[in-house]
Design goal:
2 domains; alpha/beta; 267 residues
Length: 267
């Protein structure tokens, strides 16, 4: 099965930079392997696009600390409820959610233990959480980092790797054992920790970062990634072919980029 489907890409690309599309569409492929009954809690919901595509027929509640993102989430009409607040302190309904999804949000939260405890308490007994988190050394697979290493420049390579994580504000970076320990410490039962998203997605993400910076600037100025979704929709097919070619050219299919922690509330 391909990591990215054109259907998902065609729905994402009009509203997000290509680099972000690569990662989000690969995560959509992964989450569809699981039944995700509602009500669903979407932690760090952002603009709501991921949830709207992934969970079209479920009751979804979104929570985000960023009021601007919450506004876009509300406009997306993907959610039954939007909570503007910090996942570590927000008053969530106890024992209510059948499913929680955290799409690469928890690594940014300073108090990870409090966030996980709040998620645990909001789940119904037996309810599951699906946590997409970065693998500790994901940035070591950047072509630029590997190029420095191949030249024997290990110090600059490590510095660049660290700089990438600082740019993306990663406060928590662990390997499989580390993420398992953190989640279990919060009283959640870890069912599996699956490596997901190939090295090829990381390499393609890196190659697309520079052109995607225009989207970041636009978001700072207008709160949205793109301004002309109708035009971008027409460009979705050639953009998808370019992304697919870049991933095929890299050819590294090992899942080194992220981990999907599947856990549940005991009971």
């Amino acid at each position: 099965m391909s990591e990215l489907s054109f259907d998902d890409f065609a729905r994402y690309f009009p509203f997000a930079p290509a680099a972000l599309c690569v990662k989000e569409c690969a995560r959509l492929t992964q989450i569809r392997r699981y039944a995700c009954p509602g009500p669903i809690l979407d932690v760090g919901c952002g603009d709501g696009l991921f949830a709207r595509i992934a969970f079209a027929d479920a009751e979804i509640w979104g929570i985000d600390v960023d009021a601007k993102e919450g506004g876009w989430a509300l406009a997306s009409r993907a959610y039954a409820q939007i909570i503007l607040g910090d996942i570590t302190r927000a008053k969530l309904p106890r024992g209510f959610f059948a499913t929680c999804i955290a799409n690469c949000s928890l690594e940014h939260v300073p108090d990870l233990d409090a966030a996980l405890a709040n998620i645990r308490d909001s789940l119904e007994p037996g309810g599951r959480a699906y946590l997409f988190v970065p693998n500790r050394d994901w940035a070591s697979w950047f072509l630029s980092v590997r190029a420095l290493s191949s030249l024997g420049l290990e110090g600059p390579a490590r510095s660049l790797q660290g700089a990438v994580d600082r740019v993306f504000k990663h406060r928590h970076l662990y390997d499989e054992a580390g993420w398992r320990a953190r989640v279990e410490r919060a009283g959640l039962r870890v069912e599996q920790v699956d490596p997901v998203l190939s090295t090829a997605t990381t390499v393609t993400f890196e190659l697309l970062l520079l052109p995607s910076l225009f989207g970041l600037v636009n978001k700072k100025l207008t709160t949205r990634w793109t301004n002309f979704p109708r035009w971008r929709r027409r460009a979705a097919r050639p953009a998808f072919e370019l992304v697919s070619a870049a991933m095929a050219a890299d050819g590294e299919t090992a899942p080194t980029a992220e981990l999907l922690v599947v856990c549940s509330r005991p009971g």
